[in-house]
Amino acid sequence: MAGSGRAGRLGAAPLGERLAGFVYGTIVVLSVLVAGARAFPEDATSVLVMVLVTSGVFWLAHVYADALSHSVVHDERLSLAALRRIARRESALLEAAVPPAAALLLGVFDVVSTGTAGWIAFGLGLVVLAVAGVLFSRFERLGPAATLGVVAANVGLGLLLVALKVLVAH
Predict the structure, then answer these.
(1) Model confidence at 105: pLDDT above 90
(2) Is the pLDDT of residue 131 over 50?
(3) Residue 170, pLDDT score
(4) How far is the C-alpha of 72 from the C-alpha of 78, rounded, in Å?
(5) CA 47 to CA 170: how far, in whole Å?
(6) CB–CB of 50/36 below 8 Å?
(7) How far, in Å, CA of 169 to CA of 75, rounded?
(8) Rounded distance, CA 32 to CA 25, Å?
(9) pTM
(10) Cβ distance 117 to 104 under 8 Å?
(11) Cα–Cα distances in angstroms (integers) from residue 121 to residues 20, 64, 105, 137, in the given order
């Protein structure tokens, strides 16, 4: 079967690294949404800026740290090509912000209230975490019970942040 065995697993490595970036990036965004909802309950623009700036800062930090690591591990000076590969691999951290940011734009343009835009952003973040759990389970060829466990763990972490949002905002 194509994609099975060692060769198939090695081909999954870049996808696995991107999957990690999506999970991490989504958790960062959900955390920022918690803080943003508290700090700017009626200002979707400020929450959106917080999400985008924080995602950018975390992306830069990851690129920088991975670039240092690459240089040490490979005992070589970092080339521009290697830096581009690292930046591209870590771009999932930025891409994870896109669905929640799109939801926040609904609040920025007064299509919905800031609060509603925030809840939509949370919901999209939880969907991303659930999809990431399903994708991980497929890569690992997990059965239904294990898949449910992985999805529950991913979404559970997101819901823990939602609970924190409710406790902090009320």
Answers:
(1) yes
(2) yes
(3) 59
(4) 9
(5) 18
(6) yes
(7) 49
(8) 11
(9) 0.84
(10) yes
(11) 20, 28, 10, 24
Q: How confident is the model at residue 5 (pLDDT cuts 50, 70, 90)?
A: very low
What are the extents of the domains in the chain? Answer: 14-169
Instruction: Name the maximum alpha-carbon separation found in the chain.
Output: 54
Alpha-carbon torsion angle 16, 78, 73, 66, nearest 10: -40
Structure tokens at 38: 């508290």
**Residue type for position 54:** T
Spatial distance between the Cα atoms of 85 and 140, rounded to a whole number of angstroms: 25
Distance separating alpha carbons of residues 67 and 79, to the nearest angstrom: 9
| Burial tier of 72 (Cβ tally within 10 Å: 0-12, 13-18, 19+) | exposed
CB 139 within 8 A of CB 16: yes
* Cβ contact 118:104 at 8 Å: yes
Q: What is the pLDDT of residue 141?
A: 93
Mean per-residue pLDDT over the chain, rounded: 89
Query: Of residues 66 and 10, which shows the higher confidence score?
Result: 66
CA angle 94, 100, 102 (to 5 degrees): 95
| Higher pLDDT, residue 165 or 42 | 42
CA distances from 37 to 57, 90, 157 (A): 20, 27, 18
